[in-house]
Amino acid sequence: MNIEIALTVNGETVRETVEPRTSLADLLRDRLRLTGTHLGCEMGSCGACLVMLDGAPVHACLVLAVQADGQKVETIEGLNESGHVSDLQAQFHDRNALQCGFCTNGMVMSAQALLSDNPRPSRAEIRDALSGNYCRCTGYEAIVDAIAATADRRAGIGETVE
Amino acid sequence: MTAGNEHIGQAHRRGNALRHLAGRGRFVTDLALPRMLHAAFVRSPMARGRIAELDVSDAAAAPGVVRVFTAETLNKTCAPWTGTLEHFAGMKSAPQNILAEGAVLWAGHPVTMILAHSRAEAEDACELVLLDIEEEEAVVDGDAALLDGAAPASEGIDSNLCFRTVLETPGLDDAFASAAHVVEESFTFGRHTAVTLEPRAVIADFDPSTGQLTVHQGTQTPYQFQDVYARHFGLPESKVRVIAPDVGGSFGMKLHVYNEEMATVAASLTLGRPVRFVADRLESFVSDIHARDHRVTARMAVDAAGTILAMDVDDMTQIGAFSTYPRTSVAEGNQVIRLMGAPYRMPDYRGRLSVVFQNKVQTSQYRAVGHPIACAVTEALVDRAAEQLDLDPFEIRARNLVADDAYPHVSATGYQFEKLSHQTSLAKLRQLMDYDTLRSEQAELRRQGIYRGIGIAPFVEITNPGAAFYGVGGARISAQDGAVVRLTPGGDVQCAISVTEQGQGTETIIAQIVADQLGVTPDQVKVTTGDTDTTPSGGATWACRGAGIGGETALRAGRRLQAQILAIAGAVLQADPATLALAGGAVIDSGTGRERITLAEIGRIATYRPDTLPEGCDNSLSAVQHFAPTGYPFDFTNGIQASHVEVDIETGVTRLLKHWVVEDCGRIINPLLVDEQIRGGVVQGLGPAFFEECLYDDMGQMTNASLADYLVPMAGEMPDIEIAHVETPTLDTILGAKGVGEAGTAAAGAAAMNAVNDALRPLGARISQTPMTPLRILTALGHV
Ligand code: FES
Ligand code: FES
C-alpha cells in the first residue's frame, strides 16, 4: 500500500508515492537523486545521513519518508546552494577537514546545528557535538579546528578564508 | 634544465575536496545504471557445517526477483582462486569459489545470490530461501586449531597450519645466556576491522553486444581487479575496464578479492545487464577482511648497561578459513616477525610465525600491516627492561636506537635501512612534548590519587615497496606505476596516472609535482586517476607507495614533457633548448628569466600549425613514463610517538589527553596532507588499542557485528595530536619522498599501551592485551 506525500526539499516542492517502509534517505538518494546524503550504517550510529528537517538535524536513515510529509527538508546540496554554510565549507577546505568525504555532509550538518545553538563552543563542546558523527579518515582534529575557526569568524575574530 | 620547486613542499589545498563539501561526491554507492539489478546474499548462519538442503524456488518466484544463483549455477563461470604466493615457502590454502559449495566455512559465508529490481525486494526474497545446514564443530581458537586431531577449517587441507617460518641469527642462544636481564611477556592483539564509512560497493556492467565488461568498484587497486576479472572470467584484458570513482575509505580493506564482488561480476556476465552490490553494515562486519588477531610471546635480553642484545618472538595469527587473494593472509605475520626490534641496534633475533586457519572471517592486510604488533611488543619489552634497570624510557632508547650516522644499516631480521633519523626524532619528541614537565606533573598528580601515564614508541615504516613485496611470489601485482602528461592545445596540463585517490590527496600532490616540472601552478594541472581505460597501468595505492613511487613517476613524466616542450620551443625560437626553461606558464630564457613564448602558444603551434615547425621537429605534446623503484627493496621511514593518558582506577576508563608524533617521511610534498595522514593514522591505531574488537563466541559467531555494538573511535574520545618532522629524503629517487600513510597507525597503539602501563605501574598492574577495555584494566588491577 503506497502513500502519497508532499514535502519541500531544498526549497522545491516534491510529490512522491512511497512505500510505508521507505526511509527519507532512500527517498532523497534513490528517487530525488540527492546523493550528497550518504548511508554508512542505516541504524542511526554514524551520522553520514544527517539532513535538516524543519531546521533541525535528523538521521535520514531512521526517519521514514512518510514522516517528512508536509515538512521542509534541506540536504547538503540545498545548504551548499543557499550559501548558508559557505564559511564552514571554506574552513573545512582550508583545514583539510575531510579526506574521503563520505562523512562530510553529516559533519557540516552537525556543525551548523551546533553553531546555531552555541555560537562560541569550546573544543570539548565541539567534540561532544560530533558524538554521533563517525569519521574513519581524519582523526577528527581537523574537523574540530574547522568548526572552531568558523565560530571565531562568525564572532568577528580572525580572518575569513575564501 | 630543471624547473624550480615552487609547489613541492607547499600546503596546497585539495581541489577535489570542494566537490565533497558541495555534496557532489561521486561514489559507487551513488551510481544508478539503466536496467540495473540489485544483489543480496543468503549467508551461512553457522561457522561450520554442510549444506543439507537448499531450495530457492520460493525466492525465485518472489516479487521483483529476476534471478537466483547458487554455487551450482554461478561458480562454473569463474576459475577458482587460491591465496598462496611462492615466496612464502610451503604455505597452503584451499581454492575458493564464489558461493559455498557443500561446506559453509564461516558465519557469513555467502550461499545464495538473489537479484531483484530493488535491494529491498532482494532482501525480502532472501527470507524465502530454504537453507538447511548440518552444523559441524567449528575451528574457532587458533591454538586449538593446531592440536593433533583438530578438524581442518576448510576442505582440501590436511591441517590448520597455513604457513610457518622461523628467522634466527646464530648468536641468539648465547645472547640470552649472557644477558644480565631477560624480560618476557605474552600479548594478545584483538581482531578488528576497517569499518570504512562507505561500505564495499561494486556495479558490474557487461554489454554482450560488444563483450565489454565495465566494473565500477570502490577500490584502491583498479588494475589488480582488471587483471583478476580478466583471468578468472576468461575475458581479454582490453575488454575489462575497472573504474574506481570517489572511494569512501579503503585502508587496504578494499584491495582484496571478495566472494560478493566476484558474484556481482559473474551475475552481470550471465545476465548481460548491470548488477549492483553494496554491502550493508551488518554484512560488512561478516565479509570485509578483519585485521590483526595475534597471540605473541616474546622475550628480550639486555646487558647490565641496558643494551638490547636480542629478542625471541613467537607469533600465532589466526586468519579465517582461507588465505586472502591475491595478496595472501601471510604478509601481516611476515611483517610482524621482521619488524620486531627494527629501530634498535639489537644484533640477535629469533622470530617464529604460525599462520593458522579457523572458521571466522578472513583476516588480511589493513593499514600498517604488521607494524602495530611488532611495535607494541618491542616497545613494551623495552619499557620492561628500562623498569628493571631503573632507566628512564628516553634513556634506554637513546642507548639503543641505531645512530643517525650509522647508515646504511641492516636489522637482525634482514631489513636494509638506507638512512633514518631515530636519534634526532627522539630528541625532538622530548622537546615537543615537554617531557620533563609532564613527568613532574605526573608525580604531583599521583600524590592526589590521579594516575597519569606517559608512553613512547619509536617505529619504522615500510614504504615504496619494490617487486620483492608480491611480484617475486608470482602475484600479478604491479610494483611500477605509469603516467601520461600532456600539454593541451590551450596550454593547460593534464596528467593521467595509475596511483589512486581515496581522500589522502594523491591528485593534489601529483599536480604539485607536475606543476613544478612544467613551470605552471597546480591549479593548471588536471589529474585523472582510477580508470583502467584512461590511465596507464600500475600498482596504484597500497603499502604507502602513492607519493614515493607515483610521485616519482609524475616527476619523470613531467620532465620528459618539459624536454619535448623545450625542443619545440627551441625550433620555433631558433634557440638551443639548453638555454631555455619553463616558468610562469611560459618558456623563458634560463639565463635572464625573460619570457620567450607562452605554453599556450606552443600548444597552438604544435596542434594547429605543425606545418610551421621545421622539418623533422616532433610536435608531440604528450609524454609517457613508467617508473619502478630500484635500489633498496623498500624505503623505510621512521618516527616516534608519545601518548599521554589518565586512567581512572575505579572505572578502568582511560582518557587520552594528548598524542605526539615526530615523523620522517623524507621529502615532504605537502605538509598539510602529510599531517592529516598522520592524524588519521594515529586514530586508526588508537581505536583498536582501546575500543575496536570483533568479538566471537565459542561457536564462531561474531557477537558485535553492528555499528551500535562494535566501538569505533569518536571525536569526543580522541586527543589532539601534535606533529613535528625530520626530513631525510631517500636518494633512490629524484623526488626523495617516502610514504606516510601508515606511520600514524604503526606506533599509536604501542605508545598508548606503554602510557597505560606507566599509569598502572605504581599499582603493580600491567596490561598486555588490546583493546585495553575498562574491564581488562580493572582485571589487571585485580578489581574484578
Ligand atoms: S546511515 Fe544514518 S546514521 Fe548511519
Ligand atoms: S573523511 Fe572519510 S569518513 Fe570522514
UniProtKB/TrEMBL annotation, chain A:
Top-rank taxon, per record: Bacteria
Pfam family, one: Fer2_2
Record's protein name: (2Fe-2S)-binding protein
Segments passing through the bilayer: none
Keyword check for Oxidoreductase: yes
Gene Ontology molecular functions: 2 iron, 2 sulfur cluster binding; metal ion binding; oxidoreductase activity
SUPFAM superfamilies: 2Fe-2S ferredoxin-like, CO dehydrogenase ISP C-domain like
Domain called 2Fe-2S ferredoxin-type: residue spans: 3-79
InterPro entries for the chain: 2Fe-2S-bd, 2Fe-2S-bd_dom_sf, 2Fe-2S_ferredoxin-like_sf, 2Fe-2S_ferredoxin-type, 2Fe2S_fd_BS, Beta-grasp_dom_sf, Diverse_Oxidoreductases
Keywords for the protein's UniProt record, in alphabetical order: 2Fe-2S, Iron, Iron-sulfur, Metal-binding, Oxidoreductase
Organism: Antarcticimicrobium luteum
PANTHER family: OXIDOREDUCTASE WITH IRON-SULFUR SUBUNIT (PTHR44379), XANTHINE DEHYDROGENASE IRON-SULFUR-BINDING SUBUNIT XDHC-RELATED (PTHR44379:SF8)
TrEMBL record, chain B:
Keywords associated with the record: Molybdenum, Oxidoreductase
A GO term, aspect molecular function: iron ion binding
SUPFAM superfamilies per record: CO dehydrogenase molybdoprotein N-domain-like, Molybdenum cofactor-binding domain
Aldehyde oxidase/xanthine dehydrogenase a/b hammerhead domain boundaries: 22-137
PANTHER family: ALDEHYDE OXIDASE 1-RELATED, XANTHINE DEHYDROGENASE
The name this protein goes by in its record: Xanthine dehydrogenase family protein molybdopterin-binding subunit
Lineage of the organism: Bacteria, Pseudomonadati, Pseudomonadota, Alphaproteobacteria, Rhodobacterales
